Amino acid sequence: MAIRERLSGNEAVATAMRQIDPDVMGAFPITPSTEIPQYFSDFIANGKVHTEFIPVESEHSAMSTCMGASAAGARAVTATSSAGLAFMYELLWVSASMRLPITMAVVNRALTGPININNDHSDSMGARDSGWMQIYAETNQEVYDNFIQAVLIAEACRLPIMVCQDGFITSHGVSNIDLIEDEKVKAFVGEYEPENYLLKHDNPLAVGPYGVSPYYMEIKRAQAQAMKDAMPVIRDVANKFYDMTGRQYGFFEEYKMDDADVALVVIGSSAGTGKEAVDRLRSEGQKVGLIKLRVFRPFPRIPLAEAMCKVKAVAIMDKAEGFSNSGGPLFNEARNSLYDLPDKPYAVNYIYGLGGRDITVEDFYDIYRDLYVICENDDPGDVYRYVGVRDSRY
Amino acid sequence: MFRRAQDINEKSTWQELTPGAEIYEPATSLQVKTGDWRVMVPVFKEAQCKQCLLCVPFCPDNSIPVKDGRRLDFDFDHCKGCGICYKVCKFEAIDFVKEEK
């Protein structure tokens, strides 16, 4: 039987870590992820886990610690946010290139400039091309479930993985949660037994060699293949997780999409607000739907495009400004995925929620109304839009 | 089994590399001939050599082989021609000249 609890998202991740009992955690505190190593330190102090906890002087060192541990053959975890993730930037590329299956809890927070501690996705979106897998959660339950699955996904793919949740919204918001029994989690993740590792006595190993031009491109191509090959692994781990818990996870969740005219694509906790808007609009007879993207890396290009093609117009929501002059990162990739399809929907972008700006059910009404206008006019207008920003023109 | 370093070369395809470019055996740097980086080359003048062996630990590339307490001629497969041995030799037993190729 599942264990009924009420936990914050940070407590949920720390609990998942306790149940996984990793070999090494290297961590440095930063709001709003600080509580994860803090709760985990309690578990260590109380003898609940056997993890070697390495408190370091920076996130650069936290990731370096995890890399050293992982290369040595250990199961390594860490947690960070915002500027902390930015400070790991160099090592994100190195760890992915070294194919080290590190699992990192990312509690999404705006990047500084101006300084802000609240939620948006600019931190992890800024690291989207680092070679790390990225999985996002709407709820505390999802972040707990994702973290447990992530360990297996990372190790099967030999790629590092970020398990992302929205800072404060889920990380500090307490909600009901079904925990899995400790022994079931332990059996699910199993022992980490890499084939080769630095501490294996009979297997001298060199990791992270210099990659001169005649090799570098082939090394990157092989790494790109690992990201492609992650798709079926993520699906298989989700199936195994469903068998254990009855909770189903895909690359994304389709909410009332089957007969929808228009839809949103959204990442993270805002999907909950969006679903509320969907329910209310549907009670008024409007056929609206929502797609909540769970897996952003690898990007589920083909299935996502097929799902978006069920509607006539889709609003792709970015909780990060890409400063690209062509919309946010999710918009660019999701819209690109539609390009080869003959009957594609209109696709517009909404930048929302930067630095903790609330997005409300009413904001979603406005977006759905815009989508119907696009359909009526047969014209998308300006595809690069904002919602929830004060603007003198309106 | 994993591919050995000697089976990987500049013709290998991306599928033929190891994950993360890991190397599963020791001492593979011996297979990388760095001697062709040389512009200048040291010349060992055995007659003037007192076998003090000062040059040996100074060589950054382990390119001065020693046998039975005596140094031999340079390992030109790996000597990069840095000239440090020439600088440290007290007995003018090493010349340093432009290499003719």
Secondary structure: elements and pairs:
The complex is a heterodimer of chains A (about 400) and B (about 100).
Chain A (H helix, E strand, L loop, with lengths): L2 E6 H12 L3 E4 L7 H11 L6 E4 L3 H14 L3 E5 L1 H6 L1 H9 L5 E6 L13 H5 L6 E4 L3 H18 L3 E6 L7 E6 L2 H8 L23 H33 L6 E4 L6 E6 L2 H14 L4 E6 L1 E3 L3 H8 L4 E6 L10 H9 L8 E6 L9 H17 L6 E3 L8
Parallel strand pairs in A: 2-3, 2-4, 4-5, 5-7, 6-7, 10-11, 10-13, 13-14, 14-15
Antiparallel strand pairs in A: 1-8, 6-12, 9-11
Helix pairs in contact in A: 1-2, 1-7, 3-5, 7-9, 10-13, 11-12
Chain B lengths: L39 E5 L10 H4 L7 E2 L2 E2 L12 H5 L5 E5 L3
Antiparallel strand pairs in B: 1-4, 2-3
Structure notes:
The complex is a heterodimer of chains A (394) and B (101). In chain A, strands 3-2-4-5-7-6-12 form a seven-stranded mixed sheet, with helices on both faces. Chain A has a six-stranded mixed sheet with strand order 9-11-10-13-14-15, sandwiched between helices. A two-stranded antiparallel ribbon of chain A has the order 1-8. By secondary structure, chain A is an alpha/beta fold. Chain A is globular. Chain A has two domains: 243 residues, 3-Layer(aba) Sandwich (Rossmann fold), CATH 3.40.50; 135 residues, Rossmann fold. In chain A, strand 14, helix 13 and strand 15 form a beta-alpha-beta unit. Chain A has 13 helices and 15 strands. Chain B is mainly beta. Chain B has a domain of 68 residues: Alpha-Beta Plaits, CATH 3.30.70. In chain B, the strands form two sheets. In chain B, strands 1-4 form a two-stranded antiparallel ribbon. A two-stranded antiparallel ribbon of chain B has the order 2-3. Chain B is elongated and about 55 Å long. At the A-B interface, helix 9 of A face loops of B.
